[in-house]
Amino acid sequence: MTSSRPTLTIQRAYAVAREAFEPGGADLVGVEIEWPVHKRGSLLRPEPADFLPIMNRPLPNSSRITIEPGGQVELSGPPLESGPATLHAINEDAVILHHRLRAHGLIPTDLAVDDRRPPHRILDLPRYRAMESFYAHRGREGTWMMTNTASVQINISHHPDGRNLRWALANKMGPILVAAFANSPGIGPDGQRWQSVRQAIWNGIDPGRTAPVPVSDQPGTDWAHYALAADVFFIRGGDLGTSVSPGLTFADWMTTGHPAGWPTEDDLRYHLTTLFPPIRPRGWLEFRMIDALEPDCRSAAVLVASTAMEDRIAAELVDLLPDTQDLWVTAARDGLNDPVLRDAAQLLLGVVELHLRRHPTHSSAAGTVSTYIDRYTKHGLAPAHVHGDIETDAFPRLDDVVVAAP
């Protein structure tokens, strides 16, 4: 809730933002998977009530079911001690979830961008209304992201001793993972063929909240700068809250206030949940940039990201991998056609596969990564290379764009 007067100082705001980098104790891995869903025999979206019989039944491994704005189903697995362990748990629950969905006439798909139907939001919550309205000021990408995209998200604890090595490595790995697991090919905003149209959609939403966070040896401060410079789109309060148009950064709100009130610590914590960089600190690290994938490819992506963070190879990889800070767009557009990213992906997946093979209980996981390498990575390919192109009106046509004369 907002305050009637200024209470949040800049020093306290920075301290709140830095909390996102505090280790939580246990060293865990979690996975969240999204699937677009349609009704059997048609491409109609389900209504929220259609999901109630599924959501009210617990799953064996306690994975949590939620619904996204466009009717995508999200399954959040239990955080466990390793990538193989959390994969086993969420994959078991996913099989049961899909069986229950189909039993109720709902069909999940592995699409990263659902181009079979126009964007439409089925959840009418104040946050989502405000979000869609805010994004619409820039174009159609925001509604497409909210309603017609899906991903696999990997969550990894900060290192228990508080070191920032994982943050640096995660941001180095990010573009490599985008390229190596791209799964939404099609024409992007520049008229070129992109390997991950989903990532192109994210890039076009609002760079102030979707661009990568700058990486330095002061990540908490970097995150605070990023957060305070990002626009506010929703202020909580009352039954409906207040939608905010682009142009009011959180720092501005702290300085000048708003008719709805002045921000508090809780408002800042809420604001942090409205920021979506590809690697997001949240008391752990969220890998948010990977396209939805079919199960075997998805498992490979989870194993690569989680295994690379283990102490025995993380320090090696952060030195071996190239500087990719300026390759996020290249990764989404060109994928492994880019020679730097192709070599980096082959290095990353090769090191992970070798590490898993040396672990006495991870032979199956090693086989999953090895199969992916043999099918895709060693040939400079990703799943996007074997799929037909996605057709979307998320981006303005080039002939609709007015270019100012010099």
UniProtKB/TrEMBL annotation:
User: SUPFAM superfamilies from the xrefs?
Assistant: Glutamine synthetase/guanido kinase
A GO term for molecular function: ATP binding
A Pfam family that the UniProt record links to this protein:
GCS2
Q: Could you tell me what reaction this enzyme catalyses?
A: L-cysteine + L-glutamate + ATP = gamma-L-glutamyl-L-cysteine + ADP + phosphate + H(+)
Q: Which keywords does this Swiss-Prot/TrEMBL entry list? A: ATP-binding, Ligase, Nucleotide-binding
Q: Give the top-level enzyme category.
A: ligase
Q: What does this protein do?
A: Catalyzes the synthesis of gamma-glutamylcysteine (gamma-GC). This compound is used as substrate for the biosynthesis of the low-molecular thiol compound ergothioneine.
In the record, the note on similarity to other proteins reads:
Belongs to the glutamate--cysteine ligase type 2 family. EgtA subfamily.
Q: Which HAMAP family match?
A: EgtA (MF_02034)
According to UniProt, the name of this protein is Glutamate--cysteine ligase EgtA
Per the UniProt record, the source organism is: Rhodococcus wratislaviensis NBRC 100605
